[in-house]
Amino acid sequence: MKDKFYNYIQELQDTITSKLEEVDGKTKFQEDIWKRPEGGGGRTRVIENGNVFEKGGVNISAVHGSLPKAMQSYFKVGDVDFFACGLSLVLHPKNPMVPTVHANWRYFEMYDKNGTIVDSWFGGGQDLTPYYLFEEDAKHFHQVCKTSCDKHHPNFYTTYKKKCDEYFYNAHRKEARGIGGLFFDYCKQTDQMSMQQWYDFVTEVGNSFLEAYVPIVEIRKDIPYSAAQRNWQEIRRGRYVEFNLVHDKGTLFGLKTNGRIESILMSLPPHVQWQYDHHPKPESEEEKLVKVLKKSVEWL
Q1: Residue 260 above 90 pLDDT?
Q2: Which residues pair with 127 in a beta bridge?
Q3: What is the 3-state secondary structure (H, E, C) of the chain?
Q4: pTM for the whole thing?
Q5: Pairing of strands 169-170, 117-129
Q6: Who's near 283: CB < 8 A, 6+ residues apart?
Q7: Residue 212: CA atoms inside 13 Å, Cβ hemisphere, count?
Q8: Chain-centre distance of CA 111, in angstroms?
Q9: Is 102 known to be catalytic?
Q10: Which residues, other chains included, contact 291 with Cβ-Cβ below 8 Å and sequence gap of 6+?
Q11: Most buried among 11, 25, 67, 80, by the most CB within 10 A?
Q12: Per residue in 152-198, pLDDT tens?
């Protein structure tokens, strides 16, 4: 399964980066192949200063070795070995009318010292972080997510949409990071779902990413915007950074397993600001967004 999934994410990386280069029309992804001293490595692809994408990354990695002490206590296990592979992407568009997007699809195995698999699971999801709220964009994104889920289980969309709302939440701000999508983790073999069925589901979601995001980019990327709207985008990006550095488990795992810092922090936007005690003007489009982020919304 690990070889099968790693082959899948290599192909998916090629598909996604090719399409995003076509959408941007100006710049290409820069590829960086790296090795992890303890075992494994990855292929990082970063795009910067394009027509559409100010900064973005579509990264794959496959790492293995002894599970570090900090992660042993996190997973509540003893001295075990692990293998983890996945594709992680974040795109920060230049135009504040185009939302930031994040997606991740991953597979994990844990072994005893004889090399026997003692646990394995899939995880992942995709979520949208707009700076200006276009409800039709939110509905489109969620509809693509639901369509993918419905092919595999009637309750998957409702369950994983709720988990996404709960996970991508800045508790210290009492607001969501964005308008959600899907989040699933610890998808393990059960009487109802085999690992092959989980693989089919996770790859279905991965294959839906471009359909979920690219049409939104195409509609919004040429909308004129003001310096004030760009300023708002940078303030909201600050909330994005706060989530990734304070709450995100993927960032934590990467840092605790001696991951590659440049790849882990690729998710951070290039231009961001924190203004003291900033509040949007009452009845403004900016306030409309913040109000929506204060509560979970059923977009469909």
Answers
A1: no
A2: 102, 181
A3: CHHHHHHHHHHHHHHHHHHHHHHHCCCCCEEEEEECCCCEEEEEEEEECCCCEEEEEEEEEEEEEECCHHHHHHHCCCCCEEEEEEEEEEEEECCCCCCEEEEEEEEEEEECCCCCEEEEEEEEEEEEECCCCCHHHHHHHHHHHHHHHHCCCCCHHHHHHHHHHHHCEECCCCEECCCEEEEEEEECCCCCCCHHHHHHHHHHHHHHHHHHHHHHHHHHCCCCCCHHHHHHHHHHHHHHHHHHHHCCHHHHHHHHCCCCHHHHHHHCCCCCCCCCCCCCCCCCHHHHHHHHHCCCCCCC
A4: 0.95
A5: unpaired
A6: none
A7: 29
A8: 27
A9: yes
A10: none
A11: 67
A12: 999 999 999 999 999 999 999 999 999 999 999 999 999 999 999 99
- Select which of 92, 102, 140, 142 is catalytic: 102
pLDDT at 1 over 90: yes
